[in-house]
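Worked example

This section walks through a single chain of length 168. The input is the sequence exactly as stored; nothing has been trimmed or padded.
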Amino acid sequence: MLRITLTGPLAQTFAALALATLAGAAQAGSLVYQPVNPSFGGSPLNGAWLQAEATAQNDAARRAQRLQQLFSAQQSSATGTTPGQIFSQQLQAQIYSSLANQITQAIFGENAQQSGSYSFGGSTVTFQRVGTNIQLQIFDGTTTTTVVVPATATLGGGSGAAPLSGAP
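Given that input, the structure is written out below as tokens.
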């Protein structure tokens, strides 16, 4: 065990300081909540100031809302699209996406077909398996686009080719 002994004037000063620190009584004041709003017991002189602050905040909110409306109107007029047209475009995109999923399932799904044809809105998509490839022809009414997709893939990084799901 380590024991430190202080002697002389330093020891007396240290002892006096320790006693003075420990002997003082701890004091604390009570916290009292004082409301600001006169409606809840605050000073009546705060009423005009609070009203002015609320009005300023409401004006700023209205100004921001008006700017947003103007910005939206400018965007709509600049692009020439109405909310109804935007909805129509989104609905059309959903329908095309669903149709693309159906065609993909017909080509690569569990019951994959050897060939097939889908017509919609003046466009025709035909597909057929040719050797190890799948040939897609997309006719949009004026032009024909041909896409050739391999029906085989390398699995697990090996060198052997295995058919994709549903391929013969």
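What to look for: The two ends are 87 Å apart (CA to CA).
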